[in-house]
Specification:
single chain; alpha/beta
Length: 116
């Protein structure tokens, strides 16, 4: 049996807004809109966003509201990337470790910016 990842899917109360957020952050085009399901990608990888009207966002690092999944995103300039994601609506959650910062996206999902 051969298996390969098709997509990472994030639940959100607003799939259109969250798709635009990650499309801009990752410079990946929106490739499919099917009602409340949106894909972004480059042909090799894809992230999908689906409507979850009762979504309860994670509250990292609170174990009562677990993160479930998160994205680690490599960037060339972590300070410039931070300014960009904050302008786009992300919130800084932690900057305790050099070259590694944790944010929440507009729907509350944690994601990390990393710089070697």
């Amino acid at each position: 049996m051969t298996a390969r990842l098709s997509s990472v899917v994030l639940d959100t109360p607003d799939p259109h807004a969250l798709a635009r957020f990650y499309s801009e952050l990752l410079e990946l085009p929106i490739t499919k809109v099917d009602g409340d399901w949106i894909d972004i990608g480059d042909g090799a990888s894809r992230i999908s966003f689906q409507l979850a009207p009762n979504h309860i966002p994670p509250q990292w690092p609170d174990p009562n509201y677990p993160q479930q999944v998160h994205l680690d995103i490599w960037v060339d300039d972590i300070d410039a990337a931070e300014a960009k994601v904050l302008r786009m609506g992300a919130q800084l959650l932690s900057a305790k470790e050099a070259g590694f910062r944790v944010y929440s996206d507009p729907a509350g999902h944690p994601f990390c910016l990393e710089h070697p």
